[in-house]
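Project channel, design review

CF: Before we commit to the Asanoa ferruginea constructs, I'd like one complete example in the thread so the newer folks can see what an input/output pair looks like. Taking SnoaL-like protein.
RD: sounds good, go ahead.
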Amino acid sequence: MDDPEQFMRGVLGMWTQTDAKARLAAIEEHFDPGARLRDENGDLVGYGAIDDYSGSLRNRYPDARFTLVSTDAMADAVRTIWTLGPPDRPDLVTGMDFAILDHDRITRLYAFVDEPE
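CF: and here is what came back for SnoaL-like protein:
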């Protein structure tokens, strides 16, 4: 992967993308068809489950956008620190994604989320 930061900006932007076609295109670009997403709420597999999860994020935080804080890459792994929130509180939610890639597509994504109090 030439630019891990740009790659993860695309992943983070996908979660709050409102255009269904653009969101699916971003999912297909960044994720393997059998990709697994794991967070404290469960284990999701495949494009449909990832798309559904994206919808749940938009429902919980309708005006929120992700801000990439930092990205580090090593071998087939990328770690990204991020914030999520509306324009007036961009750090409402904070967290870290840890992605394992194969041929520049995510096969496993572990999301560590610090929910707002």
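RD: helpful, thanks. DSSP finds three helices and six strands in the chain.
CF: Helices lie at 4-15, 20-30, 46-60.
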